[in-house]
């Protein structure tokens, strides 16, 4: 695992604390998941969290959480979307997250769930390397495709 800045580790610890009582599995995905898997430093701007719809109520415990309305993004949508910050790090929470792939909306629901150590006795759930790479390939953005190479290094 590559080193994450202290602010990101603290934000992940906050997320893990809030979701400790989650009834459904949750994952960190995208850039932060790549950074946790990578053997080289990876710059990440935010933390993306997939949560189960049943666990949305847990987010009420987060100071300053902002629930957002659906937008009209052509590639991504969520039945529930909220954002917060912790220590200056942006965190996005998505429930019912979907990707428009080949003209059809498909759920983004990882099957694998590995726990990666972030220090201080805390582990964070992410998809395994292969599934994360496949997810990023499906996302198809330039930044996602560049991240795939970081997973295999």
Word description of this protein:
- The protein has 153 residues and is an alpha+beta fold.
- The chain is 28% helix and 33% strand.
- Strands 1, 2, 3, 4, 5 and 6 form a six-stranded mixed β-sheet that branches. A two-stranded antiparallel sheet has the order 7-8.
- The class by helix and strand makeup works out as alpha+beta
From the spread of the alpha carbons, the general shape counts as globular
Number of strands: 8
**SSE series:** HEHEEEEEEEHH
Q: Which spans of ≥5 residues are poorly predicted at pLDDT below 50?
A: none
Distance between the termini: 11 Å
* Helix residue percentage: 25-40%
Strand proportion: 25-35%
What's the story with the biggest beta sheet? Answer: 6 strands, mixed
What does this entry show, briefly?
This protein has 153 residues and is an alpha+beta fold. The protein has helices at 6-18, 30-37, 129-139, 142-152; strands at residues 27-29, 46-51, 66-68, 76-86, 89-101, 104-107, 114-119, 122-126. The chain contains four helices and eight strands, in the order αβαβββββββαα.
Mind sketching the topology for me?
Blueprint: H1 6-18, E1 27-29, H2 30-37, E2 46-51, E3 66-68, E4 76-86, E5 89-101, E6 104-107, E7 114-119, E8 122-126, H3 129-139, H4 142-152
Parallel strand pairs: 2-5
Antiparallel strand pairs: 1-2, 3-4, 4-5, 5-6, 7-8
Looking at this protein, list some descriptive labels.
153 residues, alpha+beta, six-stranded mixed beta sheet, 28% helix, 33% strand
